[in-house]
Every structure is written in C-alpha cells, then in structure tokens.
C-alpha cells in the first residue's frame, strides 16, 4: 500500500483493494473466518496507532483498512447473500407452483367426489320416490284403466327426471371446467346449480314431491331463514332423511321440523359456536315401517357419512339414530357462521414488512468499526490543538543559540508526530549529527489536521541550532516545501533547504 499519512496522496491501488474486497465477499462461501482476519487487521492497525512510533500513520492505516477493506467486503457479502436469497425465492416459487398444482388436482378430485355424493342423494331420492309410487300402485285395489295410466305416467315422469339428472351428472363429471368450483364448506354455489338441487322451491318442494309419491309427511311449514349455504345444506338433510324413510320404512309417518335462531343463545358454551352466532336446527323423524321393507334395502351408509362430513365442514353437527319407540331420527345443527372460519390472507398479507436485517447488520458493523476510529481521530486532533500548537509570536521568541531550557519555556509540551505534515526528506536534512533532534508544531489558529504553517525547531548540545517555518500552501499549489523564516527569508541557523528534495543542506 502507498503512503497512508494524513496528508499524503491516496494510493492508486486502493480502488483495486476495494474491488478485491468486494469480490472476496461476493465469491467466498465461507464467512466465518473472514471476520477474524478483518478484525485482526483492524486490531493490528489500532495497535500500531497507539504503540507505534508513527501514530498518525497507524490511525490512517486503520481507517483505510475499514473504508477500503472491511466495508467493501461487507458489501460483497451482502450481494452474495442477496443473490442466494433470490435463488432460494425462485426455488420456493417453483415449489409452491408444484404444490398449487397438486392442491388444485386434489380440489378437482374432491369436487368430483362431492358431485358423486350429490348424485347419490338426488338420484337416490328420485328412485326412492319411484319405488314408493310403484309400491302403492302394486297394492292399490280396484284401480281403473285411467288411474293405472295416470300412475304409470307419474312413474314415467319420475324415471325421465332421474335419467335427465344422471345425464347432467355425467356431463359435469366429464367437464374439467365444471369441476373447478369448490363448495364453501360443502354447500357452495355448485350445489345450487348442479345436479344435486332436487327441489327448486326449498324444503317445501321436497315435502310436496314426497307426499305426491304417497309418503305420509308432516311439515310445520317453516323454511330456513338463514344464509343460502345453510338453506341448501338443510335441504340436503331433509332429502337424505326422506330417501332413507322411503327405503327403510315404507308407509311410516315422517315429521319434518325446522327451527332458526337468528341470535345466539345467552350463556351458550364457547365450544358450541352454533348457539352463540345463530343457527338452524333441522330434525326429520319417522315411525316404524307401516309395511314390509324390501330385502337388500339396508344400503351402505355412504349417504349419511357424506352428509355428516358436509355438516362438519360447515361447522355444524349431525346426529342420527333409532328412536326409543321405534323408527329413526336425523337431526342437524347448522351454524350461520362456520366455526373457526378465518379471513383469507394471501402471501403479501403474511409477508413481514420490515427493513432487511442484513442491511441493518452491515450498517451496525460499519458504525461499530468506524465510530471508535473517528472518536480517536478527533480526540487526537484535540490533543494536537491543545498541546502541539505554536503561535507566530511564540515562534518569534525562539532564536538560534538559545538554551534549551529557555526555549522549552516557550514551546508547547507536545509536538507533532515525525511523519505528520513534514516530508521525510526535510526531516532528514534538518538532522546533521547523532545528538541533534528536531520538533515540529502546527500553527495556531487553524484546524489541527490542516494548519497554515508548520514550525520546526532543532536542538544540538542543548541549544537551538535551527528554526524553520514550512508554508503548507506551497504543497497545495504543487510546489516543494521549503524551510523559510517567518518573513519568507532563508532559515535561521544558516541552512539552505531550497534543494532539500535532493538531499542534505549544511549548517
């Protein structure tokens, strides 16, 4: 490295050092040993500034190390970690895309399964009503030809309706676009317009069609006064109960009851949100069968299992079981607000909005390294300003031939470092013997790091043998420094240093 004195020229290699430090931080994969090396370098520079013979140069070396070594390395390290984070982000995005495709496929399969469950409910309901009509036609005595024709027409109409529903179900299952809309809690819009919507006019339509098929159905006339998904799910509960009653208890009396609570029940337990947020209760019960059930009509229980899953997904509960006096009861509690429903939040909503911790760490390291150096620099400058400054009047009182004791009474207690401000060749020219020594002082007033003049006083055999004033403005203008008197004449003491750059003068 070239000179690092406070007034020396900046080395042309310092930008190359900075580029090398940036490249080292950018390309190095092992970051644990680099701070140790950098910390050791800074410690060595600080030790040289405190303990060495040239403290100003040591402090300058430390500052240059931090500015052109540590800071560029941290910048390169930041660029490396930022690139690694970007690559990891793209890899994460690709992984999320694959996961999203898998989730979409699962949703598509889940929707197809839901449509199949709707097919089971709606088509099974239609076929059960046809079975009820056929059974009534089979046991009805004394029917005329017109009555037989009417009953056969009803059966034909029911069969055509079931066939039409089956065709629509197959069409939906074959179309991938039709399977894309997922139901909200199993009761979304797809069930409103899809094949499972068997009663366009709600629970009343289901009851009227069952009664027209010959079932003994009682209903209190109440429709669901809740949200549309709750109403559709309540219709699914009633449809499943009527289908099971027609299949397993032909001729039994069926009672349908609907109760809606718009407000939550006071004092309801927190584990049952249905009673706290408002809910609809649907109960369908039937008595023991009035006739003989058909063989093989036990069913697989898939309809109730699928219905229970839909109710659970909506935050409700489903209870099904035999009645004490005979028969069967199916009841569902459907909350108007699903339990545990949380607002959707995208990736941006989950992303923390904060300043990158890496930049904060870089700033903290730089401040931690530079702040002590800056404080030490200004403390040293304050020391020079207080203890190593000489005014023009005080300099005039120091004369050649004066005893050292008298000169020390005028001169400050401290002096400038040997390497500060005065070039080495001028210092060598001022010393002519082994017992000669020189001291340098900055002019006052003026900033300690950029004074107007530097005063030099040389002693030999305890007497002043030479005094010089160096005009630093000459160096700023590109001229060589000269040892001159206070009036700009030759130096006191007889030494001509006009050619000091070339070597020695003479006393």
From TrEMBL:
EC number(s) given by UniProt: 2.7.13.3
InterPro entries linked: HATPase_C_sf, Sensor_HK_TwoCompSys, Sig_transdc_His_kin_sub3_dim/P
Catalytic activities: ATP + protein L-histidine = ADP + protein N-phospho-L-histidine
Region of interest (Disordered), ranges: 180-201, 486-507
Example of a GO cellular component annotation carried by this entry: membrane
Membrane spanning stretches: 359-380
Domain of life the protein comes from: Bacteria
One MF annotation (Gene Ontology) recorded for this entry: protein dimerization activity
Record's keyword terms, sorted: ATP-binding, Kinase, Membrane, Nucleotide-binding, Phosphoprotein, Transferase, Transmembrane, Transmembrane helix, Two-component regulatory system
Enzymatic class: transferase
Residue ranges annotated for the Signal transduction histidine kinase subgroup 3 dimerisation and phosphoacceptor domain, each copy included: 111-174
The protein's name: histidine kinase
Species this chain originates from: Streptomonospora nanhaiensis
Lineage: Bacteria, Bacillati, Actinomycetota, Actinomycetes, Streptosporangiales
